Amino acid sequence: xxxxxxxxxxxxxxxxxxxxxxxxxxxxxxxxxxxxxxxxxxxxxxxxxxxxxxxxxxxxxxxxxxxxxxxxxxxxxxxxxxxxxxxxxxxxxxxxxxxxxxxxxxxxxxxxxxxxxxxxxxxxxxxxxxxxxxxxxxxxxxxxxxxxxxxxxxxxxxxxxxxxxxxxxxxxxxxxxxxxxxxxxxxxxxxxxxxxxxxxxxxxxxxxxxxxxxxxxxxxxxxxxxxxxxxxxxxxxxxxxxxxxxxxxxxxxxxxxxxxxxxxxxxxxxxxx
Amino acid sequence: xxxxxxxxxxxxxxxxxxxxxxxxxxxxxxxxxxxxxxxxxxxxxxxxxxxxxxxxxxxxxxxxxxxxxxxxxxxxxxxxxxxxxxxxxxxxxxxxxxxxxxxxxxxxxxxxxxxxxxxxxxxxxxxxxxxxxxxxxxxxxxxxxxxxxxxxxxxxxxxxxxxxxxxxxxxxxxxxxxxxxxxxxxxxxxxxxxxxxxxxxxxxxxxxxxxxxxxxxxxxxxxxxxxxxxxxxxxxxxxxxxxxxxxxxxxxxxxxxxxxxxxxxxxxxxxxxxxxxxxxxxxxxxxxxxxxxxxxxxxxxxxxxxxxxxxxxxxxxxxxxxxxxxxxxxxxxxxxxxxxxxxxxxxxxxxxxxxxxxxxxxxxxx
Lengths: 273, 366
Hints:
The complex is a heterodimer. By secondary structure, chain A is an all-alpha fold. Chain A is built from twelve helices and no strands.
């Protein structure tokens, strides 16, 4: 046993170093948001925390500025709506694509990504011009539509894979067992595709939550959280930016933890062969 | 319970490929019918058409008195065991079996009674609360069978259900399914590519090749009176030997002549193959009808060949022999005095010979 433990030591050392490299910037972000400016602005910085200690001043500023809640609310609303709409639109399409013959399937999947072949910065301009005509500029709905352009190909792609992994013989068995198509979808396909749908939904939510380019083009008055962070960065307010960045990062970390659990689950095991 | 009738059933795919080329087949009520044939012979397609999982291009399909061409699978009252089992992985064994019954809106107590009964028969009583993931291959197989049992359908359909099991389990499950069919006396249609499975299980066997029926008959009749060269060589292992040669008539006896060997036909065979005198013909003879000359009483129809390979099976040996350039396989006693690479005399028991038309492959001797 001790010999085995010894063999594992290099691996855990490696893990520790990699984790440190990944986590230190996040720690820095939080440190800046809760430090006195004097500790951050000096030329030789402290590795962990400055001598002046912790301050909640920047967080207090952020919370009392009156700008956090509207942008937090807008970001939450847009991300959640994009997630719901993307799944509602992509799931039926992906199911059908997963069940068509192979030459067409390849064509469909390739064509999904056509909108992704143009740089976002280039598409966002004509989109914002059209949205201006349609009175969608500076609205949450407009931003939701723009985010769908971005996320639908990915969601479709992930869900096609999800549905393809469900053997067709399960549908056939259900049908021979006497189930209608709708019942088969409800009782067999839907429960089995749930992990894939959940992963896709969370990725979409994160993508919209982090999205910057479309938000910048399509927003005039009410900022999303990334825009609000950028707003402070632009004006040199790094302490407030750091607080905003921390707020944006928290849900990302939490969701990613949940995501990885779903990705490793063996939902389909045991069904066939 | 019902008979299944296929009338000129064809299946043509969108690509124009005609997978099933007009099949006429009567499967009797309560019969165990096995569809057997090599890969791509359309046996699975035929089964799936009976289930309703494939459309029928033309022809008629009846289950009982009902024409079911346009009925979806859910309305045909058939139950099917899939090759890959197709268990619902998110449901427990109990739920898997109860699924079809819940759809039929049976009472809870009726469902419970049928499922526990089936689980008891199949030895799954201790596993009802488990998911398929936790079961072994054989147990999953039995859940798949149980799911069809509880349905009490008019027809059971099996699509190569044993092909994923190891050899020992396969023999065991084979016996279980036969027992089950005898008990239930329900019509079963069973697809396999394994001719041993077909021979041991079927009341009757339908041999298919390339979308056509080659012969439908009892296992014994298929073995002893194959209708054509395809059936003759497909059924039986090792396969029937086929020798090419000519039919000759010498002094009122008919002989099969091939590369220096002359074999005399018994009178009943000679009578049937008369029209082939001085024409090409193919002789078929099973490995067990080739015997060792040294320990036999028969003195005619002796052929000499070089032993190429000896396979010891324990109770017998399979010898691969070169007879005047044609390969012949014989099944001899385990202690027959043959040796690798040495010439040996064999006797062909012509009473059990078959003769095939070289063009059509038809058996012209029975």
